[in-house]
Amino acid sequence: MRTRSHRARGVLAVVAAAVLGVAGCDAVGGDSAAPSERPAPSAKPTPRWDRSPSSVAAVGDSITRAFDACDVLSDCPEASWATGTSPEVDSLAVRLLGRSGAARRSWNHAVTGARMADLPGQLARAVRHEPQLVTVLIGANDACRATPSAMTPVSAFRADFEDALRSLRKALPRTQVFVASVPDLKRLWSAGRSSAMARQVWQLGVCPSMLGDAQALDASATQRRDRVQQRVEDYNKVLEEVCARDERCRFDGGAVYDYRFGTAQLSRWDYFHPSVNGQARLAEIAYRTVTADKPLT
Predict the structure, then answer these.
(1) What burial letters (b/e) apply to 92-121, b meaning 16+ CB within 10 Å?
(2) Which residues of 161-195 are buried (b: 16+ CB within 10 A; e: fewer)?
(3) Is the pTM of this model over 0.90?
(4) What is the mean pLDDT of the segment spanning 86-111?
């Protein structure tokens, strides 16, 4: 989620100083059937979902790159919820693979500023590693446009997501996919609008469709925010529906969208991207979803 002008670089640098069994062995005797007469045990079916994959590739946008989590206007992949190495975050990859395993068997192909249309290309790069699990968190930039009318149409969002998963399945039919819901952008506005610092930064062009004119509560501003909110909910419905058609895909059940984050989970430089604390919360949600006995609903 990276929307900024050249002027943003200077102002953000200033505010940065101020401010995520048992097999039994029976004896054979009497009328007992000989071992050769007993039916062969049925082979255990291969589980559809492996809760302990041995490699992870991440795709998505600036959230997965941990933009503005560590320094102003910079990616901080070491703090990424998906593949980061920071002990403060305890990323999904670290939780699944251990710290050394994550360093060797996880890859971050997310790109700051990416939208759903960019997902097929990112997945094409990720499949080269043949990961057992791919994480997807994308969609906020599709809603964070200059105006609500510029948001990605739901039909295009769906088509690009379907195309991305179709291409992944063709290359790696057994790779699992974790899909995170798009965050609640209206919650973000509600959490940060009382901060003068947040409002000052947002005025530089941070998600103007939702955060522009943050103090306005008139009918026009309310309608604008409601349109963006509805679009995010529509995107999440697409993610859920498309993922549900793939037996090796798990949606987070709306957990990221529903998470009641506060300013502690937001970057102190832009009050938009997740802070290190916010990244850690995303890692918790992802790990809970990936390791659950069954998909979350």
Answers:
(1) bbbbbbeeeebeebbbbbbbbebbbbbbbe
(2) beebbebbeeebeebbbbbbbbbbbbbbbebbbeb
(3) no
(4) 97
